[in-house]
Design goal:
28% strand; rod-shaped; 2 helices; alpha+beta
């Protein structure tokens, strides 16, 4: 058996011997991605990552709002409990003060009004926060004994 080796320049690996030189060059160019295909793929990935990041940021913002609302409700309930179990008389009037819960400072307002029944008072607690203290996080109302 007589084996004859062909030089590398005449026939690339994996090419049939019947391929001409232009056909071999065309097949060599077809291997891989063009620059345009790579840029389109990167653009698609960038858009998908941007959408995912916006979704994650929205969830983070919603979680913070839920925590602030929880803190505000705790403040309002604590204020009502202080009035209910405190030994001071619940007298009609409005008051406004700052209150803190969980390291967050809120602006609280309390309104005590008389009811048709002289033995009870209507107490409303409003808890607001944010940069301008206009965003209301909690609003609780209860009837308390007038002492």
């Amino acid at each position: 058996m007589n084996l004859r080796l062909l030089p590398w320049s005449s026939m690339p690996t994996g090419m049939p011997a019947s391929c001409s030189k232009p056909a071999r060059l065309r097949m060599r160019k077809a291997r891989g991605f063009t620059l345009l295909e790579v840029l389109v793929a990167l653009t698609i990935v960038a858009v998908a990552l941007t959408a995912a990041l916006r979704g994650a940021m929205a969830l983070t913002g919603n979680a913070r709002d839920v925590n602030l609302k929880l803190y505000a409700i705790l403040i309002a309930e604590n204020q009502l409990l202080e009035l209910r179990f405190g030994h001071s008389q619940v007298s009609p009037g409005d008051s406004s003060f700052d209150c803190e819960q969980g390291g967050v400072v809120f602006h609280c307002s309390q309104s005590v009004t008389p009811t048709p029944n002289p033995f009870f008072r209507r107490v409303e607690i409003h808890v607001a926060g944010g940069d301008d203290n206009r965003r209301e996080f909690a609003d609780l109302m209860s009837l308390l004994q007038a002492n």
